[in-house]
Each structure stands twice: as C-alpha cells, then as structure tokens.
C-alpha cells in the first residue's frame, strides 16, 4: 500500500493511493494561492493599475519591466493569473483507476487531470458536490475569460531569473507547473466523467476494493471516504466539520477500526472560533452601513455564504438594517441560490424538517421574495440600474485577483467609510490586499472555517482509534507564526506519518487473509471432524477459480471415465495425470488396539517386538513388517498391492487427516 | 437448505393493500403496508394477526419498508404501528417521508370526518408513526442490523418511489414496489444494476398490456380534451393529488400555451400548491430534463392551472377539472362526477388503474347505471374514456427489469390472477427461472443455495495462484487445504499451518515394497535399465539416477539389491510416503510387469 502525495496544500489535497490492485486518486485540489502573485484583472480599464511602474533589478536592468509591476513595495506578475497544479510527474496519472472527490472545493484541478494526463477512469462524487463544483468552475472560467489579457508572462519563470526576484516570487514553488485556467468545454468534459454516488453507497472497484462516501458535515454533499477490502480499511478524512451548520452532520462511527486514517483539510485558522467570527462579521457590517458606508464581502458563490445570509436574515431587523440592500453578484448567483434549496436529503435535520412541510430549507428564499437580497450575474446590466448605496455586496473571487470584487475594491477602496470583510480562509487577507495599497477602506478579517480544529481532531482520533494516522507535514508541527503553540498540531499515538509534496509513503499494513467462496456443492462434500472441543477441521481438495479478483472454490471435476473399448483396460496402467494431493496425517497408533484390529481382519500370526523408539509388528506369513513409532509408521512388504492397501487403510483409521 | 419465504398479506393476485412478508436468513421484513380502496370493512387493511397472534409485532419483524406514498402501499401504516403496535424501524425515501403523512391525513379526514367512522387512526397516530420512519437515500446501503442491509433504487412511478434490495449475507431479495420503465414528462425510468437477487418480487399491474408509444397516448388525450372543450363540454379528470396529476398538468399547460386556449383548467384540492412545492423541493427526484432546466424555468409553476372552488362546478361553459381521488370512490371527484354525469357533452377521462368495487372501475367496465348511496340510480350519459397514464411498467417493462436484475426466481404481486398467469408463463419461457404468484395468505418457499465465504490464508492462495499462472491452464489444478472451523469463523489454511496452529505433529506414513525382477545382469546394470525404462514412461516426472546407485521419481526412492538366494532375481525396494500414494502404487505395478527386453 503506497501513498503518492501530489499536493503540498493541506486543505487542497491530491493524493494517490495504491491499494491491492487499484490506483485511487483522493481529491483533486487546485492551489490558487499562486494567483496572489499576479495583478488583479479589472473589469473596466483601471488607470491606477495600468500606471504601475515596471520592476527594475538592483543593477538597473529593466528587461522584466513588461512582465513585473511594482505596487507599494510588492512585485506582481502582469499576466493572466495562473494556478499551481498537483504534481503530474510523480506517477503516470493515466494509470489512475478512479478519483474520489470529497467536496466541491477539492475538485477544482479535475479538468487538468482528466483532460491532460490520459486519464480513462471514473470520478466519484455526490450530486451536490458536482452541481456546486460546476458552479465554482463556471464562475472561475467566466471571471477570467471575460477580461481577456493580451499578455502572458513567462520570462520571470526562468530559474535563473526567478532567483533574482524579491520574495515571495523568488520562493514560489514549481512555477514551471503553473497553468492558466481551463475552459468551459474542458470543464464539461471533466464533469461528464463523474458518476454520482450517495452517502453510505458501497461501490465495488474491480471486485478488489470497496469505496464508500460518508457525510463529513462540512459542505453540501461533502464526504469522507472509506476504502476497504475484506481485511483492510483505509479512511480518508478530508474537510470535515462537527459544527452544526447547514449540511448533514458528520458520520464518525463508520470511521472506526481503520488500519490507516489519512487526515487532511483541517481548519486553516485554528485560533478563530467560527461562531465568534460570525458575530464580528454582523457587527462590523452593521456599523459600517449605519455610518453610511458600503460593505464588500469577497466570497465563493456557495458554502459559508448560505450561513451568512441566514445569520443576516435573523439579524437585520433587530439591527435596523431592513432597508439596506444586499447584493449577491456572480455569474452563478441565481443557480447557487436555487440549487441550495433542492438538496433536502443532504441537509441537517432542522432543514430537512422544513422541506417536509414543504418550505424552502434556507431563509434566503424569503430574503429574495421580500426584495432584501438581489442577485445579478455581473455588475453590468440590471445591476447598474438597481444599485443603491449604502449596501452590502457579496461577490468573488476571495483572492481579489479576478471577478466582480476587483471592481468594488477599486470603487470603494479610497473611502474610509467602506469596509471589506474577509470571511473565506483560503487566502491571506494581507496578501490579497497588497496590489490595492494604499487603501483607505477599512479591512476586517473574520475568517470562518468550520473544519475540524486540533481539539476536535484529537477527540475524533480517540473515538475512532485508527491504527495509523497519515497527514500533511504542516499538521505535525505548530504553525510557523505560532511556534510556541504546541497544541496546534496533531497529537496521537503512534505519532502520525507525515507527507509533503512529491513524496511517496509506504503505508504500514499486514495482510494475512483473503476472502474466498466455497460453492455449495463442495461445502456439502466436506466432512468436518472435531479435533478439539469447539474446533473442527475438514480437508478441502478443490479447484480454484479466480475471476474479477473474486476467488471461488469448486468441486474437482470427476475424472473422465475411459471409454470401454480402450485397449488398456486397467486404469492403473495410465500414468496418474494430475497429482491428487493426499492429506497430511497426524496422531499416533496404539499398538495393542492395532494388533487387535489386525487379528479381527484375519491376520492370525501377528508378532510384536519392542524397539527403542516404539514397536515392530510382524506378519510372519506375509513377510511383512510394520514399524510403529510416535510420529511415523513404516510398512515394509512384498509387492502385494491388495495386502498393502488393506494395511494402509487399517493404519489410516487411527490417524487424523489434514 | 437455506430458504426464503414470501407471504403476501395483500396484493397477492390482487391490486391494493400491498403488504408482503419476507423471511430471509432468519430476518423478517414487511414490504409495504397498504390499504385496499375497494373495501370499507376489515378487509381494507392487511390481516396483521397472521404475523403473530399474541406476541408483539416488533419482536417478529426486523423492519418495515415502504416503497412509495400511494395509499395502497402505505395507507395502513398508522393502524399497523400505532393501533396494532410496532416500534421497529420503518424505511422510506425522503420524498415519501415528506408526502406520506399528508396523504394519510387526507385519507383519515375522508374516512372519519366525512364518513363518520370511529375506531380509525388519529392525526396524532400519524405523527407518532412518522417518528419511527428512517429516511434513506438512493443507493445508500442501510445496515438495519449487523446482518440485514437494504438499498433503495429509483423506481419512477411517483416522486420518491423506490425499489428495495434486501440482503443478508449473500442471499438477497428485490422488491420493486410500483415502477415505470419509461421516463415520462416529470419522472425518470426505473433503474437497477445486475444485482442477481435470489428472488425478484415485482408488481404486475399491466402484466398483459403492451402500451403504445407515449406520444400517441398524449396526442390522443389532448385531442379528446380539446374536442370536448371546443363543443362547450366539461372534462373531469380524476387523479391522485401527487403523481399523474403533475404529469398531466405539465401536458395541458404546454398545450394551452401553444394553442392559446382560454377555457379554464382547475385543480380541485388545496393540495395542489403544496404538492407542486414538493416537486420543486425534491426536483433531484424528477427526470433529467426538468432537473437541468429548473433554474431557468421550474416546470411545476403553472400559469394556466388555477385552484378549484366547489361553486365552479355549476358554472356554464367549458372547463377542465383535475379532481381527487383518482378512482372516483369518494371525495370531490365523485361529487363533480355526479353533477356532470347526466350531460353527454361532458367527458370523464380516467388516466389510471381503478380497483374493483370503485365507481371508476364500474364505469370503465361499461356500467352506465350506477346505484349510489340511498338507492339512488345515477345514469351516466357523459363520455367515459380510459387512458393508461399510470406509471406502471407494462409487460415489456417487466421483462426488461428482469433482464436488468437477472434474478434466480421471480414472484408476481400487485396484479390480477389471470394476467399474472400469462406473464408467469412468459417469464418462465424466456428466462428459464421459476416464477411464483401466491394468493394472499399463501406462502411461497424458495430454496437458495448460497456459497460459503471463508477466510483463506494469503500464503495458501498465493501459492495456488502462482501455480495457476503456469501456461498449462487446461488441466484444472487442485488446491489442497484444511478448513478450520472455530466459533463460527471459517479459515482455510495450508495443512502444515493447520497442524502448527493446533500444536500437532505430523505422522509420517511410509511404504516400502519389495519388487522382484528377473534379471541376471549386474545390479548397477539392472538399475540403469530400470532408470531408462522409467525415464521413457514417466515423461512428465523428474526421474533421477543418484550417484549412490538409487533412483528417485519425484520423492519416491528406488533401490536395487540382489536376491539373497537367487542371483538371477533382483529385488527393487520402492519406498514412498502416503502423500505420494498414487505414484508409488503406480510405480510398483509398473515395475512388477518387468522390464522391456
């Protein structure tokens, strides 16, 4: 059992597990933090961005000033933003049999894998994961394609050149692997390879391995996966949450008795309490609006935004915000809001109960009905007519590098009345803001990450008791900025095995048994013998058939009867064809009883002699000698086959067969 | 021999009151718990005293499964769980769980409030009953207990309808409930994988019907409605609130839109709005097309179809009314029918199956004078049309499902005996499997022959598969092992390992045979002749001549000595262990015949 680690990002994992004869990719995360090194893509010509000075090397050479721009002491690549792909060289990805997706954030690299590596397998994911994952991809493609950029910078990626650049560009890893965004046809092709699955559905892979998605409690349709054979169980835990938000609660019990538990996707902000952050979010939002300012919330089009809207639904009346318009701007805003209402089966109990009434599970339906929440595909079109300030705008992308959010940053950045509130934890907010500096707008950081924290992890591990834990190396040491917080790491016994990008781990496991089926006809023919109280044995001679990794034992075929006309009449003259194995023997022969038995069978001249190790039984007339010892019997006779066979069978009566 | 027992308490050679008991590997499962629309007495519910006379049902049943929300499949559930008493788990899909209590409440109201029956289940009982329901996802494997697992498959038919696989070890039963093998305007087609159950229990409502294409039926329906409306007549379409109603609404809505018709369409119960809402929220259970386009246009928001008021029935002029219930056995559809029946301009279209005893069944079988309550005679002059829109599989569909699932046995329920008989023959002919059709209360026993799963030591298996990899695959290779049975666990290991595990020593049994050969030559020459002889005969064996003058054939040892008295006779000592019995025995008989000259 081997684990190939293709991604270094602990919350956007991409691992490949080789288990028995299958090759299983676990998630397909796309590291988008690479985009922070690029200049934002403005929707309308931005004089500020276009006037940024080109970057000049210390020695004054300017050959990079077309590709790199400087803004408030930071250097940015002036090009179409690019993403850091999972490793594609560590193993031949065309050999991957299946890809298991745990949640919609962890499938963003899917088109790169399915469309460029010769992948011919199947992708498994739940329906909400696929639908919302599609929306995320659509939004991503749309926000990059709608602002075509002529320039594509590549000179800075040259190793010799990169060495000369300032941090963080200098330290950016695998820049040669960075790729531009995929296109919608590629997205559609990738998604067409997905097969929908439901929680607790058992899916057989080639008869060798069974995989099962379990609710992970983090997002709509998010799942952990059990990968097991009859004797080994690997749990893949990725992006799980024990908080009660909108998704179905996490299924912990099914993770028990794992031989190996692969743990990824823990909270990225272990020190922040999500409930507290939501409170801060609401109060900051209210304060800004009351002071006549606008609030910008950079966000993904699905996920936490549902919870934020629900909080605001309960909060706005009491906070006197009923007249403040909420705008949700995304090419997929409408779809996301609609889709959220139709996944009743994937929701927490409270929301399910509402559907039974039947009422929409999320209150944003009411916000839309009462015109408090309006959604638009983009800032162009209807929005520009309806737009009223002060207001609250939810829009993407949280990296602030593309999407409608860029426009609002440029529009509102100069006024200190306005506030940008960061709720998504995927990007460092300071890095995200860097190309907009200097900024007068207030910035509030309320990261809401509902994924497991380290206290919850240690409780979970105590509960489910895996034999071995495997996790990204980041989880085995305190965060670099808080090196004294030894509580912010995984603590378990035996200590977890850690991995890093481009590493191959050999997972510890011992397999001793395999399942095999005994056909009923064969089972009927078996003769069990009780050897010890409660333990019975039966010798099995059977034909083994193996097909699709399933083993079956069948009755051996009856030896073909030689046709009567055949010249050689005696069967024994034929050289024995396949050697029917004789069982092993065990036990010992009690001499007195043996002699009695011989006499009963007509041997009248039996004589017994004692020897050092046992006895010799003599049959004088037949000139036959039987040496009997504790663990052996030796019959020495003339070539008298009937006699020998008779003696053999008498001896066998006293012995057990194995 | 292991067996599966099936006893229908309802739906055995009948439609209505579906309730089937299944015993499989010591587990008892009840499939559906329906009411019969043709009866108003005790016969409307299954006879649960069959299960146990005095014990608690909970002790006898491991679980109850409800296939879909139609009352002939779930109508007796509150009576069963709250009045007879059952506290175990009841499984159904999410949409069924959502819609079932509403239909039950509707049923209760008609029975208690309108007909004035007492001793019926109460609203509270419906609520308490629903608390025992566990909702299941499609394809989710639900572990009822350690051994018993169930799995739901999509069945089409109505929103949330499911087929269920019941599995214990390697024995399994599939119960189809009601299903539809062709997608319609709002639902998809039933689907099951090749799960090869020991028994498939399938509905057979349309056992002998092969329906023409859906398009023709739809065109026919629209034509009839259109013609009636054109000549100023009124059209009554009795339906159940959820299911066909939505499909026909979609059909009429698009037709009205296209033809720009003005005649009003009404839907009779307050349920409409609510019913359509269920469709909107459970849109993932509808067909591909509706699911794909629901963001742009939700098919369950109707422009032309409005809520019906009782007073509208007397309005002059044409109209189309959808009214419940679907078999004209009670309620609003029956009321409207009585008002309109006398006018030959009007038309009633029965879009689904009608159970015997209902007004619907009577008029469909040609009766035109109906005896109503109070000995009143109602003369039916309006046109009566029947159109099979009910989403049951027809004969072709049933055969198709059998082909998909590949069961070892088939059992027919939910159909009429005569038609079943015909289908049974067809199934037995085409698939060569046994087909059963028990009547209510009759038990069918099916013997299964499951193979036995055991744990084989990897060492033994690898040894065997390694041999199996040799190019010679024609000869079946025998595998030899010892099965250790201990505390219900079965392990197959090599004999050596079995001996070791049990702490036993091997007992070696050896034979040495003296074979006399006439050969005057020197001993070593005799040996050489024997060697050449054996080498020539035993081509597939390893025959060796050792330096010490002995010969080995595989592990059998042959030594030659001169006879003590007769120098012309040589004695060959052939020695082998019991494990080489066949070869040893063969060698002695071969040598006994002497050497070729």
UniProtKB/TrEMBL annotation, chain A:
Keywords: Cytoplasm, Nucleus
Top-level taxonomic group: Eukaryota
Domain Beta-Casp: 305-433
InterPro entries documented for this protein: Beta_Casp, Integrator_9su, IntS9-like_C, Metallo-B-lactamas, RibonucZ/Hydroxyglut_hydro
Parts forming coiled coils: none
Endpoints of the signal sequence: none
BP term (GO), one: negative regulation of transmembrane receptor protein serine/threonine kinase signaling pathway
Compartments, as annotated in UniProt: Cytoplasm; Nucleus
Keyword Hydrolase belongs to the record: no
Gene3D superfamilies (UniProt xref): 3.40.50.10890, Ribonuclease Z/Hydroxyacylglutathione hydrolase-like (3.60.15.10)
GO cellular component: cytosol; INTAC complex; integrator complex
Presence of keyword tRNA-binding: no
Region feature Disordered, mapped onto this chain: 549-573
Family: Belongs to the metallo-beta-lactamase superfamily. RNA-metabolizing metallo-beta-lactamase-like family. INTS9 subfamily.
Protein name stated in the entry: Integrator complex subunit 9
Source organism: Anser cygnoides (Swan goose)
Gene: INTS9
From TrEMBL, chain B:
Beta-Casp domain location: 245-363
InterPro entries in the record: Beta_Casp, INTS11-like_MBL-fold, IntS11_C, MBL, Metallo-B-lactamas, RibonucZ/Hydroxyglut_hydro, RMMBL
GO molecular function: hydrolase activity; metal ion binding; RNA endonuclease activity
One Pfam family in the UniProt entry: Beta-Casp
Keywords assigned by UniProt, alphabetized: Cytoplasm, Hydrolase, Metal-binding, Nucleus, Zinc
Cofactor: Zn(2+)
Domain Metallo-beta-lactamase: 16-233
Subcellular location: Cytoplasm; Nucleus
GO biological process terms on file: snRNA processing
SUPFAM superfamilies tied to this protein: Metallo-hydrolase/oxidoreductase
Family assignment from sequence similarity: Belongs to the metallo-beta-lactamase superfamily. RNA-metabolizing metallo-beta-lactamase-like family. INTS11 subfamily.
Protein name: Integrator complex subunit 11
Organism: Anser cygnoides (Swan goose)
């Amino acid at each position: 059992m081997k684990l190939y680690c293709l991604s270094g990002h602990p919350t956007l994992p991409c691992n490949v597990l080789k288990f028995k004869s299958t090759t299983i990719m676990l998630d397909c995360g796309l590291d988008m933090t690479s985009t922070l090194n690029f200049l934002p893509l403005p929707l309308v010509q931005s004089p500020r961005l276009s006037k940024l000075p080109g970057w000049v090397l210390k020695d004054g050479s300017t050959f990079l000033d077309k590709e790199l721009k400087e803004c408030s002491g930071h250097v940015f690549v002036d090009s179409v933003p690019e993403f850091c792909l999972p490793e594609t060289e560590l193993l031949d990805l065309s050999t991957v049999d299946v890809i298991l997706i745990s949640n919609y954030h962890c499938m963003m690299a899917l088109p790169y894998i399915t469309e460029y590596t010769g992948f011919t397998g199947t992708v498994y994911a739940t329906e909400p994961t696929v639908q919302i994952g599609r929306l995320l991809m659509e939004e991503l493609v749309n926000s990059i394609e709608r602002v075509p950029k002529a320039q594509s910078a590549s000179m800075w990626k040259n190793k010799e050149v990169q060495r000369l650049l300032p941090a963080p560009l200098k330290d950016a890893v695998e820049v040669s692997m960075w790729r531009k965004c995929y296109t919608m046809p590629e997205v559609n092709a990738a998604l067409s390879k997905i097969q929908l699955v439901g929680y607790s559905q058992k899916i057989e892979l080639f008869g060798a391995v069974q995989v099962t998605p379990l609710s992970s409690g983090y997002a709509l349709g998010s799942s952990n996966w059990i990968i097991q054979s009859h004797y080994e169980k690997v749990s893949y835990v990725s992006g799980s949450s024990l908080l009660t938000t909108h998704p179905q609660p996490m299924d912990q019990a099914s993770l028990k008795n794992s031989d190996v538990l692969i743990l990824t996707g823990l909270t990225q902000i272990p020190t922040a309490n999500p409930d507290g952050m939501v409170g801060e979010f609401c109060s900051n939002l209210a304060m800004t609006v009351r002071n006549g300012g606008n609030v910008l919330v950079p966000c993904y089009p699905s996920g936490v935004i549902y919870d934020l809207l629900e909080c605001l639904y309960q909060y706005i009346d009491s906070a006197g915000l009923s007249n403040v318009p909420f705008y949700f701007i995304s090419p997929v805003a409408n779809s996301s809001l609609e889709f959220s209402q139709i996944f009743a089966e994937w929701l927490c109990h409270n929301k399910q109960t509402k559907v039974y009434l039947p009422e929409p599970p999320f209150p944003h339906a009411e916000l839309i009905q009462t015109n408090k929440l309006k959604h638009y595909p983009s800032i162009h079109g209807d929005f520009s007519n309806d737009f009223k300030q002060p207001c609250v705008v939810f829009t993407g992308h949280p990296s602030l590098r593309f999407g409608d959010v860029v426009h609002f940053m440029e529009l509102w950045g100069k006024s200190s009345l306005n506030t940008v509130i960061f709720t998504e934890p995927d990007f460092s907010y300071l890095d995200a803001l860097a190309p907009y500096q200097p900024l007068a707008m207030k910035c509030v950081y309320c990261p809401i990450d509902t994924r497991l924290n380290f206290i919850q992890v240690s409780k979970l591990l105590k509960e489910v008791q895996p034999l071995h834990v495997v996790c990204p190396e980041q989880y085995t040491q305190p965060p670099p900025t808080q090196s004294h917080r030894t509580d912010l790491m995984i603590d378990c016994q035996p200590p977890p095995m850690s991995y890093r990008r481009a590493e191959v781990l050999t997972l510890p496991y011992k397999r001793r048994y395999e399942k095999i089926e005994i056909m009923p006809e064969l089972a009927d023919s078996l003769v069990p013998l009780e050897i010890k109280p409660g333990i019975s044995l039966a010798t099995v001679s059977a034909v083994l058939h193996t097909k699709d990794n399933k083993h079956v034992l069948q009755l051996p075929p009856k030896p073909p009867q030689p046709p009567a006309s055949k010249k050689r009449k005696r069967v024994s003259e034929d050289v024995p064809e396949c050697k029917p194995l004789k069982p092993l023997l065990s036990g010992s022969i009690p001499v007195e009883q043996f002699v009695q038995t011989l006499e009963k069978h007509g041997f009248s001249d039996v004589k017994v002699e004692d020897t050092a190790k046992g006895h010799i039984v003599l049959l004088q007339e037949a000139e036959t000698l039987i040496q009997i010892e504790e663990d052996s019997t030796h019959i020495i006779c003339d070539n008298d086959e009937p006699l020998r066979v008779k003696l053999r069978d008498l001896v066998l009566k006293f012995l057990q067969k194995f | 021999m292991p067996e599966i027992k099936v006893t229908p308490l309802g739906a055995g050679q009948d439609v209505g009151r579906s309730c089937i008991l299944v015993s499989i590997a010591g587990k008892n499962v009840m499939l559906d718990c329906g009411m019969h629309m043709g009866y108003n007495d005790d016969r409307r519910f299954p006879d649960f005293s069959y299960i146990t006379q005095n014990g608690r049902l909970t002790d006898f049943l491991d679980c109850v499964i409800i296939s879909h929300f139609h009352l002939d499949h779930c109508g007796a559930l509150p009576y069963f769980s709250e009045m007879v008493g059952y506290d175990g788990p009841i499984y159904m899909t999410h949409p069924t769980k959502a819609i079932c209590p509403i239909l039950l409440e509707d049923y209760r109201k008609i029975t208690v409030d309108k007909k004035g029956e007492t001793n019926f289940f109460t609203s509270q009982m419906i609520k308490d009953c629903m608390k025992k329901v566990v909702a299941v996802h499609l394809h989710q494997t639900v572990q009822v207990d350690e051994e018993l697992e169930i799995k739901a498959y999509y069945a089409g038919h109505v929103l949330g309808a499911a087929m269920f696989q019941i599995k214990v070890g390697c024995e399994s039963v599939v119960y189809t409930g009601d299903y539809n093998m062709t997608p319609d305007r709002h639902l998809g087609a039933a689907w099951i994988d090749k799960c090869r159950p020991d028994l498939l229990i399938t509905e057979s409502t349309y056992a002998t019907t092969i329906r023409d294409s859906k398009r023709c039926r739809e065109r026919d329906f629209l034509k009839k409605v259109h013609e009636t409306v054109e000549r100023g007549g009124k059209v009554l379409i009795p339906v159940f609130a959820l299911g066909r109603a939505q499909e026909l609404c979609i059909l009429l809505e698009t037709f009205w839109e296209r033809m720009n018709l003005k005649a009003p369409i009404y839907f009779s119960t307050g349920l409409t709005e609510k019913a359509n809402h269920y469709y909107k929220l459970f849109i993932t259970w509808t067909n591909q097309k509706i699911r794909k386009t629901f963001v742009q246009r939700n098919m369950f928001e109707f422009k032309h179809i409005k809520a019906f008021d009782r007073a509208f029935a007397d309005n002059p002029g044409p109209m189309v009314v959808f009214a419940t219930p679907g078999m004209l056995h009670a309620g609003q559809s029956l009321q409207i029918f009585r008002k309109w029946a006398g006018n030959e301009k009007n038309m009633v279209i029965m879009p689904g199956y009608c159970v015997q005893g209902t007004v619907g069944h009577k008029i469909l079988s040609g009766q035109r004078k109906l005896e109503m309550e109070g000995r009143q005679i109602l003369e039916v002059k309006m046109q009566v049309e029947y159109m099979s829109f009910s989403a049951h599989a027809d004969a072709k569909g049933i055969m198709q499902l059998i082909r998909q699932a590949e069961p070892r046995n088939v059992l027919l329920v939910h159909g009429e005996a005569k038609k079943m008989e015909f289908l049974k023959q067809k199934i037995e002919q085409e698939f060569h499997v046994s087909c059963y059709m028990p009547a209510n209360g009759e038990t069918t026993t099916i013997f299964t022959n499951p193979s036995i799963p055991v744990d084989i030591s990897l060492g033994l298996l690898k040894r065997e598969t390694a041999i199996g990899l040799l190019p010679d695959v024609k000869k079946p290779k025998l595998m030899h092992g010892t099965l250790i049975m201990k505390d219900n666990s079965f392990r197959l290991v090599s004999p050596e390992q079995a001996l070791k595990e049990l702490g036993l020593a091997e007992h070696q049994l050896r034979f040495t045979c003296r074979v006399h050969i006439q050969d005057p030559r020197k001993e070593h020459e005799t040996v050489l002749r024997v060697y050449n002889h054996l080498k020539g005969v035993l081509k597939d064996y390893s025959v060796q001549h050792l330096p010490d003058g002995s010969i080995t054939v595989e592990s059998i040892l042959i030594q030659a000595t001169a006879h003590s008295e007769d120098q012309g006779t040589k004695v060959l000592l052939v020695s082998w262990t019991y494990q080489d019995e066949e070869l040893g025995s063969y060698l002695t008989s071969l040598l006994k015949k002497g050497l070729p000259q």
